[in-house]
Amino acid sequence: MNYIVLDMEWNQPWPGSPSSKKVLPVAMRGEIIQIGAVRVTEDQQVADEFQIMIKPKFFRHLNRRVSKLTGIKEARLREEGVTFPEAMEQFRSWCGEDIVFLTWGFDDIGILRENLQIYNLDTSFTDRWYNAQMMFNAQTDGSNSQKALKTAMEAFGIEASRPAHDALGDAYHTALICARLDLKRGADEYDQALKSHENGFHGAELPGCIARQVFYDYPDKHAALAAMSGEENLCPICGNRMLSSRWFAQPGHRYMDLATCPEHGKFLIRVRLSQQEGGPVRVSRLTYEATSEAAEAYARRVEKADPQDASRPRRRRRRRTGPKPDANQNPEA
Predict the structure, then answer these.
(1) Which domains does the chain have, with CATH numbers?
(2) CA-CA 20 to 30 A from 196: which of 42, 147, 216, 300?
(3) Is 54:76 a contact under the CB 8 Å cutoff?
């Protein structure tokens, strides 16, 4: 049995572009443009590598943010890329039989399965899969936050020797981490680690946190945020409803808002939204003191968003109610 440490890069259409409005036979969050993989043997030795570039079919124009992050250009995809079915044939041949996939995070396998489905290709070979983040947490600090690959590398004293945001580079660094874990034990304890993660919080907790809650089964992001600023926006001291101010988006499906209790003052609210199996939205909610680092971060975000509100109020345009006056007409006539 071999472990296949997998990482991928995928393209996404620019919001509002023609590609983003395409109706596809399968919902696809991203179209894979690069696959990188490293084999780790059963005795946990880092072995051979695999890399391939893929020509996109559905989202053909490369999102400039994706290009900037990965360094991949459309010219390279045209020159080196193969079709997705051909890439899968080569990849599965390289993987061999009796394999288990390891990824750093939950997204890669889901994206791979979506891409397989849109081409009517078999997905069963991806059934044996673990998120190595969960194993790392269980065998290090026991937390349930999703740590960055760089953070895990630093914890194990691993120096970066490959480029980041490159499929093979990230797969190689992940393989070095996996080789230092007890993978058999990680697989045996994975269900418990996953349960701990699902019942916990998916982000780093800043100093000053005074309350933690998890909420489930909201139909979408808007309903979740409405509940967090409405019926679930309760003071951590007296339990009375607080007044919300304004949600600001942060990276990683996170949002923050400053809430006010009429009796106990202000509290900073941070939430992280994640999708449950089947579609509903789950919310991890953290409440902070008004003097915390998190509240200071909110104040900086407000200042950045509205730097001129106090000194230069927005001028309101007056709507004309009559015909436009003749430019040559004397207004005092």
Answers:
(1) 2-198 (3.30.420.10), 209-305 (no CATH)
(2) 42
(3) no
